[in-house]
Write a structure and sequence with these properties.
By secondary structure, the protein is of the alpha/beta class. The protein is built from eight helices and eight strands. It has an eight-stranded mixed beta sheet, sandwiched between helices. Strand 1 and strand 2 form a beta hairpin. Helix 1 runs parallel beside helix 8, helix 2 packs antiparallel against helix 4 and helix 3 runs parallel beside helix 4. The longest helix has 21 residues. The protein is globular and about 55 Å long. The N terminus is likely disordered. The chain binds zinc ion (ZN).
Amino acid sequence: MRQLRRLALSPIAAALLLSACAQSPVTPVVVAAAVPSVRNAQLLNDVRILSADDMQGRDTGAPGGERARDYIVGRLEALGVAPPPMGRLQPWEMQGRTRAGPKTYNGVNVIGLIPGTRVTDRYIVVTAHYDHVGVNAEGQVFNGADDNASGVATMLALAADLKRQAPEHSVLIVALDGEEHGLLGAKHFVEAPPVPLTSIAMNLNFDMTARAETDGKLWVTGTYQHPNFRPILEAIPANGAVALAFGKDTPQDTGEDNWVEASDHGAFYRAQVPFLYLGVNYHPDYHRPSDDFDRITPTVFISATELSLASFRALDVALDR
Ligand SMILES: [Zn+2]
């Protein structure tokens, strides 16, 4: 851990407190209530269901992927997250890659809209891919609990939190398909965005938010490209055993240690939309059939999710001032 937690506040409350102090040091600050434990149960439930064997590894275009999509639609509906004017589902057909060569994929992105209170015509696009790599030739299911049922669950927890306390920016909640075959859903999203690209303040991408115990870090990639984001997030204290760390984005970070285009935020980066990526480091179950729900340590996942929510809130408050 790089930072000690000195305040008896949730990270969200602490972030709000810090940002509010910066603006008006004498005004009493109303801090957000403690995160209710029911949300943590829902968070874990979402990962468990999305990474269950009956989802069959959630491959793009496969019945398991469709089941996962139906589940996410149901969760957004239950949370009262409305579809954008273009509709809940964004189907696409894209050329993707497989080990055997190029292949045409038909995928579907799922979109929700949460109106903002201060910057209503600017959007923070929150993304998490719900697809994974399916079943291999030996019949092994790649459940992808960390990659990326976790990020979807974190995104749904954020959506729930934003329904409790509205964001300042308008927010698109986007569960992307086809990431594993070459960021396909994200590429389609930036080619046919539901709002003008110029109205997107930033993309915040969650991919692998559960297994932070490897190094105790939830990595933030993209502050090399967007240094203005860094002081906003550096104010967020560590949460339990997990702290934000910055990197995997410089010219010195090469190969698999450069994450600038490692997940869907890469499509936003290429489209020159500001981005940040939040995700954990590699672990032994990464892209293996053993990436299962029971390998997730709930307290670590909850900490990383709370840091993700705190990151969103801090950015939402700071941007477009
Ligand atoms: Zn992933």
